Fold:
Amino acid sequence: MVNDGWPSVSSAEYPEFQSAGGPGMPGTFHFASATANVTEYRYVPFDGGPERTVAAAPDGTAAVTLTPDRPGPQTLLVVAVNGDGLVSGQGDYTIDVASGS
Structure:
């Protein structure tokens, strides 16, 4: 079942829709959800690789470190899962990785 709402994503190193960082430069991405009892987040990294899972802290948040490997726009896809197995709507977070100098 799908739960209404979707998780929010933020990053100090890679603000959404802004040119920042660079290929090979890691960034920390913070996940949060208004959904009660979130136990984990499932996300697809920028490279489009396989879905990954990270456990949520008791406050329902989580953080992952990701390292973009190429310049340009890239999108991170995230869903939250609560203790009843309900999956949120999909959140997306688009960054613009700056070209290396």
Remarks:
- The CA atoms of residues 3 and 88 lie 4 Å apart.
- The chain is about 0% helix and 50% strand.
- The radius of gyration is 14 Å.
- Residues 2-97 form a domain with the Immunoglobulin-like fold (CATH 2.60.40.730).
